[in-house]
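Q: Could you fold this chain for me?
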Amino acid sequence: MQIYAFIMIRKGTSEDIDTILKITKDCAIDMVSKNIHQWNSQYPNRAAFENDVSRNELYVLEEETIIGCIVISSYMDTEYQDISWLTPNSNNLYIHRLAIHPNYQRTGLAQKLMKFAEDFAIKNEFISIRLDTFSKNARNQKFYELRNYKKLGAIYFPKQSEYPFFCYEFVL
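A: Sure. Below is the predicted structure, expressed as structure tokens.
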């Protein structure tokens, strides 16, 4: 395990998107090599990250270069409306597109991004954090469950997969 001397999390900009797309493409290739068909040529895409930047919701993790990202949003996607959440649908935070370049995975950097998001939620007085993760990605499910996120239901993104995505919530 490599120790990182200087890690910074900052707001993402339009200039960061090409690097982020390279990271997410490398993550997709890595997942496919493990038979996890979660991300593909349609998602995540430039338009999604441009929207994240325009809403000031994109954050990047960098050491000398960008090696990861996370989207921290207060916007609830329509796909989430039928989930029986633990808290009311108001003042919730949503996590999307958490990615760490495969060369830096298993070093605690995803934990740092989630801690950053959780601290952000507490500081800004959100009542919970919600997210989804692919049903065929057991490693991600374990990652969130070890952080005390509760699995609540499933949603579908047909352009990504025929398999469901599990929804999780963490009450603050």
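A (continued): The chain has a mean pLDDT of 94.
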